[in-house]
Amino acid sequence: MNAETGTGLALELRGVSKRFGALAALSDIHLQVRPGERRAVLGSNGAGKTTLFNCITGDFPPSSGAIRFFGEDVTTFPAQERIRRGLRRTYQISLLFTGLSVLDNVYLACRGVSRGRFSFRRPRASDALMQTAEELVTTVHLQEVRNTLVSDLSYGQQRQLEIAMALSGAPRFILFDEPAAGLSPTERRELIAILTGLPGHVGYIIIEHDMDVALRVSERVTMMHNGRIFKEGKPAEIEDDPEVQALYLGGATHG
Ligand SMILES: Nc1ncnc2c1ncn2[C@@H]1O[C@H](COP(=O)(O)OP(=O)(O)OP(=O)(O)O)[C@@H](O)[C@H]1O
User: Fold this and answer.
1) How many Å separate Cα 125 from the centre of its chain?
2) Which of 95, 131, 196, 222 is most buried, by the most CB atoms less than 10 A from its CB?
């Protein structure tokens, strides 16, 4: 339990709102996520999911409200300070070095996090960070293509590699932005296996349009609509909820 707040939460949003001019992208969001918890955030296009991530990561500040990360008020902290405290994020767009191998990409991510900068010094096999990189490559099921150039990977393998990058530097919490987008059914199954197999202490929030993936990899689901939290519950409760079915399943268009 955290001494400062007594809440013991990994992430807490208190009354977070975000306006873009006249548009309220987020309105009075209250969210509580426990350490190690796996949470899915669902909602149709424009519901405010990406804006929620941007406020949590510090890509931009909320217009009002407070954000606590493991008890510490990080509302005004720059993104880099949140990364230093163990927060990671994946993006819908790829941020990989396509001319380097799988292993080198993860190794550089590990070095970047451990030393606060990237270095292109040739790694030594005995390097402890290289060992960590090897383990992360295995965690995301890419050990058989560890020496393959990223440009030669399938799209699904590139998304798996992005998960390994997010795992570098021993994060405490990860925000996954639509990791299943564009994946084949086989690749989706692989993704589900990877996410459910992550170390238990690593909590995450996953934004996902694919209801099947979202419900399988989460313990709790938050539904958003028009910048507000519309419903929260266990995956089975959300799946069976008639309002959710009417709003989301009936009206969702894939983004
Ligand atoms: N930088 C911005 N400037 C102005 N409006 C924005 C900005 N970012 C998001 N919005 C608006 O805020 C609202 C919420 O957008 P957001 O991208 O958070 O929704 P989303 O749930 O992630 O949608 P999608 O599923 O399509 O990614 C939308 O109306 C969007 O147009």
Assistant:
1) 30
2) 222
Q: In this structure, what are the phi and psi dihedrals at residue 64, rounded to the nearest 5 degrees?
A: -155, 165
Is the CB of 203 within 6 Å of ligand 1? no
Amino acid at 231: K
How far apart are alpha carbons 33 and 77 in whole angstroms?
19
pTM comes to 0.89
Report residue 164: phi and psi, to 5°.
Answer: -60, -40
Handedness of CA 92, 98, 100, 103 (dihedral sign): positive
Give me the residue spans of the domains in the chain: 38-61+77-251
Q: In terms of CATH architecture, what is 38-61+77-251?
A: 3-Layer(aba) Sandwich (3.40)
DSSP line for 5-19: TS---SEEEEEEEEE
Give Cβ neighbours of residue 64 (< 8 Å, ≥ 6 apart).
Answer: 15, 16, 17
What's the ipTM?
0.95
- For every residue of 196-226, DSSP letters joined together read HTS-TT-EEEEE-S-HHHHHHS-SEEEEEET
Candidate from 29, 50, 248 with most ligand 1 atoms within 8 A of CB, to mutate: 50
Distance 164 CA to ligand 1 centre (A): 27
Dump pLDDT digits (tens) for 115-133.
444 455 555 555 888 999 9
Distance 242 CA to ligand 1 centre (A): 26
Residue 200 CA to residue 88 CA, distance in Å, equals 16
Q: Give residue-wise pLDDT tens across range 97-121.
A: 999 999 999 999 888 755 444 455 5
